[in-house]
Tc1-like transposase DDE domain-containing protein (Chryseobacterium turcicum), 73 residues
Amino acid sequence: MNLTKDDYLDVYFADESGFSLTPSISYHWQQKNENVKIIPRHSKRINVFGIMSKNNNLFQRHHMGKITSDFVI
């Protein structure tokens, strides 16, 4: 018995990610005697939360704050 194939149970996959203009590069490669310059730009972090079904039905929301269990509920 396969509960998802028998339409008894729906399975969803959830994930969240965040984006900002603040670089998070901790190290990098460069040629000997070459200077690498990164100009940081600070911004607020935008978080995105999504839930997708096996049938590719997508529910997504963006949020300026932290993605907490209260937000998900």
Summary: The longest strand covers residues 12-19. The chain has one helix and three strands.
